[in-house]
Structure formats: structure tokens, C-alpha cells
Amino acid sequence: MIYREVPKNGDKLSALGYGLMRLPTKLGRINEPLAEKQILEAIEKGINYFDTAVPYHSGKSESFFGKVLAKNNCRDKVKIADKLPHWQCASKEEMHKVLDEQLAKLQTEYIDYYLIHALNGEMWDKAKDHGVIEFINEALESGKIINAGFSFHGLAEDFNRIVDDYPWSFCQIQYNFLDTENQAGTAGLKYATSKDMAVIIMEPLRGGNLAKTPPPSVRKIWAKADHKRTPAEWSFRWLLNQPEVTVILSGMNDDAHIAENMAIAEKGEANSLTEKEVAIVDEAAAEFRRVMRVGCTGCQYCMPCPAGVDIPGSFTHYNSKHAFKDKQASMFYAFQMGGMVGDPMLASQCIKCGKCVKKCPQSIDIPAELEKVADDMEGWMMKPMIWLGRKMMKVRKKKK
């Protein structure tokens, strides 16, 4: 495993970090035996940075991870990153209460890397009004947090002023070869490192889209490279090539993917790609932007939808159909969204309340895009497919 240094404290963090947002699930809950096995194997192989937050897995991620660390006596082998849900707090006293609850869930006396969660300019101003800077100072002084940082989901023009407003040790930004000018972007990455901040990368695969079999036109571009790589390896190597990147977070839940990611991180030194390879990535990025219909990362911040729409799922199937030329995307959309295995979650159920738009880190006009999904994916064949599917499911249930 390659380790990169945090400028302000000298910590050596694994270049690959473990995101605890997308743990393996079973029947809608964390598949604890499998998730524990995967986490312990990751620790054994050198991953030492683990990222969680209050909302992850409907509030269960922190408690589960704390239980794993305590049960296996491995707290001293990891750096825990957790986040303050400042939108729930109207005072610094409420912030301290949340922090104490997180420490209890994690079964630890301190959190190594503590972030003010999902900031944009407006939310940062509101958090300051509620006493967040005083809270950070007091939490640092008490030793309950060791390093203070923030995660960012806002406009580029707000990023620098948040960096300048406090002597942060680190920050976390969405960054991949498609998001060089989105949110903080490349300029933000370089500005943060100019202030001696470590930079943690989230969404390196754009919600998993960059690890899928790419569109045919993108495959032709990857084929130009002298050294053949998987789509995931191209994405990770492009990030690791940049010395400003400290840790790349990956929400890992599949054994094969975990093994691949760790193998990549073991050889992804900074400045190791050739000029030709960097140019190929730039060309692939341009082509991805051309063919992708919706820039959704699958982060789930827009959920739950009051009307019951599976927003990320709708966009996944829509992009699969058009960008990835998946001929079965419409069928899977009908099956998964049409109520064959649960309540209907169709794009057409959108009531245009706009709540999702306020939550979306990508600033996607979600109702407008859902209308496009409904027009495209819910044609005249949809109703009979759903009707037939529900009938088949009822027959199967009766046989059981």
C-alpha cells in the first residue's frame, strides 16, 4: 500500500481509503458478517483511513464500524473520519451533543479526522452563525477530535473562502476525470494543497459509472493506450498520478472490486502516467461528457423522495440505456421501479416538489430530468410489462 503524508501533522494515510457509505447489504440492512470480513481484510492489507457519517446506512454505519473495531481490538490500526451533520444543529451545544453520540457509537474517545459535512457557501455561513467555529476549537482542545476538516458540495467560488475561513488540516472534495471543473475541481484541489491541507477524494468513480463497461466510443479511446487497464484502474491511476491527492475514498462492497482497488493503490505513484496516457484520459472524459444524459453520482443525498421515486435508480437505468448502450436497461427499469418486487418507484411519480433539488450536490434539475426519464423509459410497453411482472411475482409467492 502506498501512503501519503498529511502536511500539518505528518500522518501517513493509505492512498486508498475505505468509504463506509456503501457497505454490502442484505434485505435492506448491512450484511454484517460480510462487511466485517471485508473491513478486517482491508485493515490487514494496509488500508488505515475509514470514512463514515451519521446518515450512512440510515444511521447504522457508525455503530457497525465501532462494533467491528471494538470486537477485533483494532482501533489503533485505523484513522476514523466522521462528520458533523450541522444542518441538524442550531447551536454549538447541539453540535457537542451530536459529537458525543458519535463517539459512543464508534466506541472511541476521539475521532481522528472530523469534517463539517457537505458544505456549500450558504450552509457554511449558517453553520458559522450557529457557532461551528467555536465548536471546532472546543472539540480540538478537549481531544475529542484530532484534526478538523470539511467536505464540500458547492460552487467553486465558495470553496476558497471556506478554506480561508479556518486553519483546516484537510478537506474532502468530489473529484474524478469528469469533475475537473465541477464543484471544487482541479483549481480547488491545488488551492487547498497550497494551504498545506490534505485532500481526500470522494466519488472517484462517479457513483460507479466510471467502473462500468464504458460506452463503445470510450472503449475505442482506452484501446489507444499502450498499457491496457480496466475502467476503474484508469480512474484511480489518474487521481493517484496527482501528488496533491492524499486519499481516494472508495465505497467498497464487493470482494473482487476491493482486491482490484488495493492492487491499483499499491502501484499508483504520483506522476507515474505518461503524457500520452494523461491525454487519453482527457479524451475519454470529453467523450463521457458527450454521451452521459444525467451527471448523477448515486450519492443518495436526494433520498428519500416524498413521492417514492428511486431518483438515483431512475438515472442509473437511463444512463445505462443511452451512455452504455445497455439493451436490457428498459426491462430492468420496469422490473425494479415498476413495483414488481415492492412499491412502485417510477420517475413518473415525481410531484415536482423540488426538495431533491436543494439537496443535490451536483445541482441537477432533478424534476426536469425525471420527466425526461419517464418520457423515455415508460413508453406504451411499460404498463403491460409491469402488469405481467406483478402477476408472475404473485404466482411465485403463492407457490411458496
Keywords:
400 residues; alpha/beta; TIM Barrel; eight-stranded parallel β-barrel
Please give the domain count: 2
Q: Assign a percent range to the helix content.
A: 40-55%
CATH domain class of the largest domain? Alpha Beta
Sheet-strand content, in percent, reads 5-15%
Largest sheet: 8 strands, parallel, barrel
Let me know the number of strands: 12
Compute the separation of the termini in Å. 49 Å
Strand pairing plus helix content: what structural class?
A: alpha/beta
Name of the CATH superfamily of the largest domain: NADP-dependent oxidoreductase domain
Question: Can you give a write-up of this model?
Answer:
There is one protein chain. The protein has 400 residues and is an alpha/beta fold. The chain has two domains: 3-291, TIM Barrel (Alpha-Beta Barrel), CATH 3.20.20.100; 311-394, no CATH class. Helices cover 45% and strands 14% of the residues. The chain has 16 helices and twelve strands. The protein has helices spanning 32-44, 61-71, 92-106, 121-129, 132-142, 156-164, 185-194, 216-222, 231-240, 255-265, 275-291, 311-322, 329-337, 355-359, 366-377, 382-399; strands at 3-5, 12-14, 16-19, 25-26, 29-30, 49-51, 79-84, 111-119, 145-152, 170-174, 198-202, 247-250. The strands form three sheets. Strands 3-6-7-8-9-10-11-12 form an eight-stranded parallel barrel, surrounded by six helices. A two-stranded antiparallel sheet has the order 1-2. Strand 6, helix 2 (61-71) and strand 7 (79-84) form a beta-alpha-beta unit. Helix 6 (156-164) packs parallel to helix 7 and helix 12 (311-322) packs across helix 15. The chain is globular and about 65 Å long. The chain starts with a strand and ends with a helix.
